[in-house]
């Protein structure tokens, strides 16, 4: 299990629910709802940015918590990003006992969410932060 595999699995999960388009090459056309990992390109206007970060790692057991910021961007109507954020919440909140990107996930829960101001191009944004409790065995941590 790696952070990259986990966040790629989340991108695939969101794309599989038809909330956005995941292309590992990062090439998108205008009009698509792009899913990216940590990158915030100028185009397309509609965007879902996934940024994972470590929160907690037990020193002996294989218990870890991965934080995942999910930032959505949309057009000039704030309801667009709110609706996309709601769809992602519906998909992820309470997801438990599954494998995502090869990572055993115990539970995913949203920790916070807030609307962001419009960007320089008058596009609305929103940010939600999720915690994923995962089993992440390492060389020195037991199963």
Offer a few descriptive terms.
single chain; 143 residues; alpha/beta; Alpha-Beta Plaits; seven-stranded mixed sheet; 2 helices; elongated
Care to describe what's here?
There is one protein chain. The chain is an alpha/beta fold. The protein has a single domain, classed as Phage minor tail protein U (Alpha-Beta Plaits, 2-Layer Sandwich), CATH 3.30.70.1700. The chain is built from 2 helices and 7 strands, in the order H-E-E-E-E-H-E-E-E. It has a 7-stranded mixed beta sheet. Strand 3 and strand 4 form a beta hairpin. It is elongated and about 50 Å long. The two termini are 13 Å apart. The model has no long low-confidence stretch (mean pLDDT 94).
Helix content: 10-25%
Summed up, the helix count is 2
Structural class, please? alpha/beta
CATH structural architecture: 2-Layer Sandwich
Share of residues in strands: 35-45%
Q: How many strand elements? A: 7
Would you state the CATH class? Alpha Beta
Mean pLDDT reading: 94
Sheet of most strands:
7 strands, mixed
- Radius of gyration over all CA atoms, rounded: 15 Å
Q: Main sheet: which strands, in order across?
A: 1-2-3-4-7-6-5
Q: Any idea of the CATH topology?
A: Alpha-Beta Plaits
Low-confidence stretches: none
Order of helical and strand elements = HEEEEHEEE
Distance between the termini: 13 Å
CATH level-4 homologous superfamily:
Phage minor tail protein U
Categorize the overall geometry.
Answer: elongated
Tally of separate domains: 1
Task: Describe the protein's topology.
Layout: H1 3-16, E1 21-22, E2 34-37, E3 47-57, E4 63-73, H2 78-92, E5 96-100, E6 103-116, E7 125-135
Parallel strand pairs: 1-2, 2-3
Antiparallel strand pairs: 3-4, 4-7, 5-6, 6-7
């Amino acid at each position: 299990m790696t952070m990259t595999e986990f966040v790629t699995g989340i991108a695939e999960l969101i794309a599989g629910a038809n909330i956005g388009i995941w292309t590992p090459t990062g090439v998108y056309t205008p009009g698509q709802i792009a899913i990216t990992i940590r990158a915030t390109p100028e185009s397309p206007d509609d965007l879902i940015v996934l940024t994972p970060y470590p929160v907690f790692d037990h020193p002996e057991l294989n218990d870890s918590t991965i934080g995942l910021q999910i930032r959505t961007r949309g057009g000039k109507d704030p309801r667009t990003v709110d609706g996309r954020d709601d769809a992602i919440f519906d998909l992820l909140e309470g997801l438990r006992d599954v494998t995502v990107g090869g990572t055993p996930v115990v539970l995913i829960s949203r920790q916070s969410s807030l609307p962001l101001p419009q960007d320089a191009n008058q596009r609305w944004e929103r940010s939600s932060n999720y915690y994923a409790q995962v089993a992440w065995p390492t060389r020195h941590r037991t199963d």
